[in-house]
Structures are given as structure tokens and as C-alpha cells.
Write a structure and sequence with these properties.
4 helices, 2 domains, single chain
Length: 243
């Protein structure tokens, strides 16, 4: 039996002697402390018992690794994410400066409102294969305003290990608030996805609270908009019994 195991290890390119095999697995110190001089018992039953135990552990670990790897390569469940929300386009309206009267200082230009704002969501495919997705629901608001737009019922292809973005409906006329909480909103998305067009059997749910940062320079009448989003929900679901 010992000779059979040695031949098997040699066939797959692993050292066939007990000492070299244990060192390869990084277990030489522990095995030496436990078994003492077993490595010198070339035909001893205890030596081959330790050999079988270590070999069994190695092969089971290898099998588990390949099972996980195969699942990752063949399944797209939980392999889609939304890592980033950015500003695709925006505009501002400015009240012009007012000249001061009777020696009073001039009133500088003042930011009146954000005339339009479009947000872009970036999806990422982490899997080793292409997947398909479509928006099931896309609800978003800013300062209590919700743009009027329906969800486009298109199935989109996302290649393996790639990103793909989509732009949400544009917000019109966002008033500038003096509230310390700033300009806040809400984004609520449901995205169906799957390995092919006819099998969108997984559901990705995302809910976030975007907040706008705004810096306005009256001298050149330009504003800088930044967005940060607090994630409130991030989950994946299987749809149906056989998903």
C-alpha cells in the first residue's frame, strides 16, 4: 500500500518520500514534534499512518479549493456589485452681483439653484463569465423631488470581470438649502441578473442615501459638486425554487 501511495504522489508531481512530502505541506515541525523519529522508519506502519493522514488532508483541501473555484467560475450569484455612484452631469443658476448704493459694498454673485443633476451608477461583474442584467426598479429623489421617468426594460450584457454604468433620470431644479444636513436624497434599486437572457433568476437590491457637497466661487461663478453615498441596504436573493 505504501508503494502504491508513493507511485501516486510521483505521478502527480509531489515528492514520494515522507520527509519531503511533509516539508512541502509546511507541517514538518509539528509532525516531527509529535512522531519523533517516524521519518526514519522506512517501512513502519506508524510512519505510513501519518503519511496517509497528511495525504488525506492535502487531497481534501485540494478538492475543496477546486469545488469553490468551479462554483465561482460557473455561478454568477452574488458576483455583481455597485461600487460607485458619480455625478454624470450638472448645472447651476446664479443670481448676478448687485452694486452697492450710497457707499454700501457690492453684493457678490449668489448661487440660486442646481438647474439639473444626473447621477451615474457603476455596476461591476466579479465573476469569471459574462452575465445579463436589467433594471427592475429605479427610484431616486433629492431634496424630496423625484424625477418622472420609467425604467427601460432592456436586458444588458456585462462581460466577465468588467464594469458597466447606467445614468438615472435627471433631477430638475434642486433648491439650495441652508440646512446643516446639506442636500440629501435617496436611491433605491432592484436589478435582475443571471447567466443568460432567459434566466434572470437573481435579484440585487441596493439602497443608499446620497449627499451633495457644493462649493461656489462668486468670482468666476463656477461651482464644484461632489457626491458621497451612505449604503443602507446591499443584498442578493435567489428567485424561484431552482435558482
Amino acid at each position: 500500500m505504501g508503494r502504491l501511495l508513493q507511485n501516486l504522489l510521483s505521478l502527480i508531481g509531489l515528492p514520494s518520500d515522507l520527509d519531503s512530502f511533509i516539508k512541502l505541506l509546511g507541517l514538518s515541525a509539528g509532525i516531527s514534534a509529535m512522531t519523533g523519529g517516524l521519518q526514519y522508519l522506512s517501512g513502519g506502519g506508524w510512519a505510513w499512518t501519518a503519511m496517509f493522514a497528511v495525504a488525506g488532508f492535502a487531497f481534501s483541501s485540494m478538492a475543496t479549493y477546486y469545488i469553490i473555484l468551479t462554483k465561482k467560475m460557473t455561478s454568477v450569484f452574488e458576483q455583481i456589485s455597485l461600487p460607485e455612484i458619480t455625478i454624470a452631469e450638472g448645472g447651476i443658476a446664479v443670481d448676478p452681483p448687485v452694486a452697492g448704493k450710497r457707499g454700501k459694498p457690492n453684493t457678490p454673485a449668489k448661487l440660486k439653484k442646481i438647474t439639473h443633476l444626473a447621477l451615474q451608477c457603476k455596476l461591476r461583474n466579479h465573476s469569471e463569465r459574462a452575465l445579463y442584467f436589467k433594471l427592475k426598479r429605479a427610484s431616486h429623489s433629492m431634496q424630496g423631488k423625484t424625477p418622472e421617468a420609467g425604467v427601460v426594460d432592456n436586458v444588458n450584457l456585462m462581460p466577465a470581470k468588467s464594469d458597466q454604468g447606467f445614468v438615472l433620470a435627471t433631477f430638475p431644479d434642486i433648491e439650495i438649502t441652508q440646512d446643516k444636513k446639506g442636500i440629501r436624497g435617496k436611491i433605491d434599486l432592484e436589478i435582475l441578473y443571471g447567466p443568460n437572457k432567459e434566466s434572470l433568476r437573481y435579484l440585487f437590491k441596493y439602497e443608499g442615501e446620497p449627499q451633495l457637497g457644493l462649493h461656489f466661487d462668486p468670482s468666476d461663478k463656477h461651482a464644484t459638486l461632489k457626491i458621497s453615498t451612505l449604503v443602507k441596504q446591499y443584498s442578493h436573493e435567489r428567485l424561484g425554487w431552482f435558482a
